[in-house]
Amino acid sequence: MNCKKLRISDDTTSQHLTILLHASKAICEATDYAALLQTLLTIIIEQAGAQRVFLLKSQDDSVILEARAQTTSEGLMIESVQCEANWDDLPRPLINTVIQTHKLLYANVGQQSRPDDPAPYFQRVSGVIALCLPAITQDRLVAIFYIELRENDKLFSNEYLNVLAILAAHAAAAIEATRLQIGIDEVNQQRLKLERALRLADTSLALGEQISRTGSWRWELQTNTLVCSEEFCHIFDLAPEHRTISFADFAACIHPDDKKSVLDRIHYAVQMETAINVEYRILKADGSVLYLTGQGCPVFGAGKLVDYVGTVNDVTAKHASENALRAAQDDLARMCRITTMGQLTSSIAHEINQPLMSIAANAGAGLRWLHRPVPDLQQVSNSLQAIAADGQRAGQIVQSLRTLTKNTKASLSVLDIHDALKCILAIARCEIERRQVLLELHLDAQLSHIRGDIVQLQQVMLNLLMNAIEAMSEVSNRQRVLTISTFTKDEQDIFIKVEDTGPGISDEIKDRLFEAFYTTKKDGMGMGLAICHSIVEMHGGTLSAALRQPVGSVFTFSIPLAKN
């Protein structure tokens, strides 16, 4: 390939200026990038008499073909493309030289082509003039026009080539401006999409906060102010337009009984640069109280703590429902205790009747000792002491029954689990004897003081004891043995084990024993073991069931020992 200057022709300056003016006008009237490319290619085809024109762009290490035009028997055909240049159709050495030098070049392809030329284009094409015209603006190559003419067609003068160079510069400016406009339009479209997405996100966040009663906030430590969401303002009864408040304004909303502990925890978290997790109440202007939970995460900038961001959640409704649930559970537990008391009516009557009969006997004996010719005051005193002891015993039984059936709130105190167990055994002793059950008691735990609610724990023991007795009611081919034992483990927990020699627990019901409303009894409610399980867990212990070898079942529950 040899590059050379074109021969000079006799074209006039006026013709050139006319062409230039018409071309400039057409370029200025192009409405978009596609129209601009079509206008440029059409001008070159018409003015240069070319048979093929390619618009190329140098991008990184490759050459991109953007558009092409060619004359056919049916007329001018122009198409827009976006692909890498195919060097079978283009003279790669010529185009690479223009990219490097930014100079207009042409080559007579045909006579100068050699069979050993490495470019596939020069081995395939002959008899044409290849003109490569750079479009440059501000010393930057914007595009390259590759123009292909037949070798025998019109020749150009230097003056005409200068016109082409001016047109190329004009085209470069138009292409650059159009590309910039496309970029601006794309940026604007992206900005609009982001704005719409942001508005949608803000709307969704506000709706989500409103539905979940959750407000968001950002605590700017340097100014000690909180930037709050709309729902945050609604929860705290703040004016929606005042989205920025001082930390002191926030602290003033906290319930007086909670303020010190909450602020201490917040300041400690800031000092340690850790997350904030608090539960507190706020006192509203109308005197109502809201229960809230707050969470905050530290935000660091330049290696230091700068902000906290977080949420506040109104859990008043949840708190009320939990209170209602606890009250319902307490009522249900009380009804279960009363139901159990009803099953033990004969046993309770027998237990109360015993001290009453003893009181009557001792009273009669005392009167006889007193009415003797010589009253035996010592015997009278002994009878009165026995009456007092039996009266106290009867009173304790009645008090235990009243305690079990009263509707009182749970009260944790230090108590001896052995004493509570013995009280339950006293109540159920007659039932044990009536059902012909042999009781084995092994209270081996050396430490037996725990912290708990005596009523709830007695309910657990009474329920397990009655279940064991009922489980053995149908047993006739072996002795009915009820074994109650206690032991400790690592001086951390005390274990109470209730064993029976009944039919045992089948595998199909073992995993459902502690489910609410699940029962194997004909007239059972299915709440006894579920309540026991809940009570034991509330005391920090565990309740489990297992098969006993060789027969029967074992129920074991544990309670943490009271710390000294």
UniProtKB/TrEMBL annotation:
Listed EC numbers: 2.7.13.3
Ranges of residues in domain PAC: 276-327
UniProt xrefs under CDD domains: HisKA, PAS
Keyword ATP-binding among record annotations: yes
Enzyme class: transferase
Keyword Transferase: yes
Histidine kinase domain: residues covered: 347-563
InterPro entries in alphabetical order: GAF, GAF-like_dom_sf, HATPase_C_sf, HATPase_dom, His_kinase_dom, HisK_dim/P_dom, HisK_dim/P_sf, PAC
PROSITE patterns named in the record: HIS_KIN, PAC
Keyword terms of this UniProt record: ATP-binding, Kinase, Nucleotide-binding, Phosphoprotein, Transferase, Two-component regulatory system
Catalytic reaction list: ATP + protein L-histidine = ADP + protein N-phospho-L-histidine
Domain of life, per lineage: Bacteria
GO MF term set: ATP binding; phosphorelay sensor kinase activity
Protein name: histidine kinase
Organism taxonomic ancestry: Bacteria, Pseudomonadati, Pseudomonadota, Gammaproteobacteria, Chromatiales
